[in-house]
């Protein structure tokens, strides 16, 4: 049996960490290596590849070039449009029997559409979106949810496991993991909305922010909710200091969950609230701040 050659497209805030985990795994394999030891990488902005090249990854000049040499390829791109156009480029020169794994948060309907398109070109399309912010991705602490054709899943399982702290497999339908990811994101963004409202209530009723944060830590122990509480309490929204997920990125994902709810008849009033606040912040030219900045819009709102 031949050795699989692995590629990675998209080295943004999340992609750089996930790809680094894969490169380390490929390098550390034993003598019975199933995978070639160097990750092949591509990013639209070439300069972002430098840290991975230092880890031993090999930079490819184009998606088409990468597709010629890899039979397994991961992608962590910004949104549905970026994924679809890049996947189309990949298919043009893809090897027969290749496996393409999307890690981005996308519309489950797009996952189904691209899986269908891939099938007609002998390419298996898997979904494996991840939970966790860029610091978790870099520390191999993301939770991976995955779905798609069983044989392809079997082939890439060690790679999925190497990307994060665990993998939840959800069957053969690539839309399944994409939908689960949107449900998880709905829970997180709704919590951020609630934290923004709680801190604003504290500000206006004279309860110091550190007291609100300590209540949050006691009531909801863990990393995610107290983490956002601290970020909101400190107005720590500058992504150049602490890369997270942008207001614009958050808005893209909230719109996807609202569209899914619309299609399947599920009302999501909490997501609509968060969406309105994210839109207000983006409209003021602050789409590049961390999505916790929706708190800025919450604070400006008059009681209704
Ligand atoms: N950030 C988080 O906390 C987080 C957590 C879990 C999941 N996610 C999901 O992860 C995905 C990526 O998020 P991110 O935070 O890593 O975003 P990001 O830092 O903005 O990175 C986006 C990546 O997509 C590339 N890209 C954008 N438009 C493109 C296009 N038209 N053609 C080709 N490449 C394009 C960018 O290339 P350039 O470098 O050239 O701009 C970059 O590599 C999103 O689906 C997001 O929902 C994010």
TrEMBL record:
Source superkingdom: Eukaryota
Coiled coil: none
Domain 3-hydroxyisobutyrate dehydrogenase-like NAD-binding span(s) in chain numbering: 176-294
Statement: the UniProt record of this protein carries the keyword Repeat: no
Domain 6-phosphogluconate dehydrogenase NADP-binding: 6-169
Keywords in alphabetical order: NAD, Oxidoreductase
Molecular function terms from GO: NAD binding; NADP binding; oxidoreductase activity
Family in the record: Belongs to the HIBADH-related family. NP60 subfamily.
SUPFAM superfamilies reported in the protein's UniProt record: 6-phosphogluconate dehydrogenase C-terminal domain-like, NAD(P)-binding Rossmann-fold domains
Lineage: Eukaryota, Viridiplantae, Chlorophyta, core chlorophytes, Trebouxiophyceae
Active-site residues, as the UniProt record annotates them: 181
Record PANTHER family: 6-PHOSPHOGLUCONATE DEHYDROGENASE NADP-BINDING DOMAIN-CONTAINING PROTEIN-RELATED, OXIDOREDUCTASE GLYR1-RELATED
InterPro entries for this protein: 6-PGluconate_DH-like_C_sf, 6PGD_dom2, 6PGDH_NADP-bd, HIBADH-like_NADP-bd, HIBADH-related, HIBADH-related_NP60_sf, NAD(P)-bd_dom_sf
Protein name: 6-phosphogluconate dehydrogenase NADP-binding domain-containing protein
């Amino acid at each position: 049996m031949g050795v699989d050659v692995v590629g990675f497209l998209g080295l943004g805030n999340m992609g750089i960490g996930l790809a680094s985990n894969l490169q380390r795994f490929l390098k550390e394999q034993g003598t019975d290596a199933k995978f070639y030891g160097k990750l092949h990488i591509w990013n639209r902005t070439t300069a972002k590849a430098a840290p991975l090249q230092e880890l031993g990854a090999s930079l490819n000049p184009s998606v088409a070039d990468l597709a010629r040499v890899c039979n397994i390829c991961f992608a962590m791109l910004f949104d549905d449009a970026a994924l679809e156009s890049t996947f189309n480029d990949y298919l043009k020169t893809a090897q027969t029997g290749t496996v393409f794994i999307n890690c981005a948060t996308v519309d489950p309907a797009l996952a189904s559409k691209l899986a269908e398109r891939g099938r007609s070109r002998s390419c298996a399309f898997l979904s494996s979106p991840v939970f966790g912010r860029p610091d978790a991705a870099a520390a191999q602490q993301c939770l991976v949810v995955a779905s798609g054709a069983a044989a392809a899943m079997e082939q890439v399982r060690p790679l999925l496991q190497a990307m994060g702290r665990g993998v939840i497999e959800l069957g053969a339908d690539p839309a399944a993991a994409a939908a689960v990811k949107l449900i998880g994101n709905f829970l997180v963004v709704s919590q951020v909305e609630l934290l923004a409202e709680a801190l604003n209530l504290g500000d206006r009723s004279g309860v110091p922010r550190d007291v609100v944060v300590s209540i949050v830590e006691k009531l909801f122990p863990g990393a995610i909710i107290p983490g956002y509480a601290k970020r909101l309490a400190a107005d720590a929204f500058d992504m150049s200091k602490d890369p997270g997920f942008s207001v614009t990125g958050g808005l893209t994902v909230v719109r996807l969950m609202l569209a899914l709810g619309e299609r399947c008849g599920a009302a999501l009033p909490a997501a609509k609230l968060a969406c309105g606040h994210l839109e207000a912040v983006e409209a003021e030219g602050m789409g590049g701040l961390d999505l916790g900045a929706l708190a800025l819009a919450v604070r400006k709102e008059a009681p209704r």
